Amino acid sequence: MAQIQPRHDPYKPQLSHQVAKTTTAVTLGGSLMVLSGLTLAATVIGLVLATPVLVIFSPVLVPAAIAVFVILAGFVTSGGFGAVASFVFYWMYRYATGKHPIGADQLDRARDKIAHTAYDVKEKAEQQFGPGQHHVKGAQGT
């Protein structure tokens, strides 16, 4: 009986490559776990040492931290709004000068759709009430 030889797949990685990948992953993962543990230990030790100082100075630190947070939030918010406003003005300038910025075609379609709907409503109103009469039924007295 003839033995069937397994076919060699050229796309299958060799065992040495798999071992190298696994070794590298385990080494890197273990190193990161050790660093994570050391960071956690240092954080806990730092909090234990800093807690008495924080408790003593908390009447000053808490309002100061709140004030700093509010000030930074205000600066970040105003900067964000300023950046957005600058972009909107730039976009409007490009749109007004005909340079076709991103989203201009969607704006044009929406404008055309609104104008078409308004024209249809006007035509329907003129058909129902006649030209020049734009009142709603029941709006006049009984």
TrEMBL record:
One of its GO terms (cellular component) is extracellular region. GO terms for biological process: lipid storage; post-embryonic development; reproductive structure development. The chain crosses the membrane at residues 32-58, 64-93. It comes from the Eukaryota. It holds the Pfam family Oleosin. Keywords: Lipid droplet, Membrane, Transmembrane, Transmembrane helix. It is found in: Lipid droplet; Membrane. It is a multi-pass membrane protein. InterPro entries: Oleosin. Its main location: other. PANTHER family: OLEOSIN. Belongs to the oleosin family. This is Oleosin.
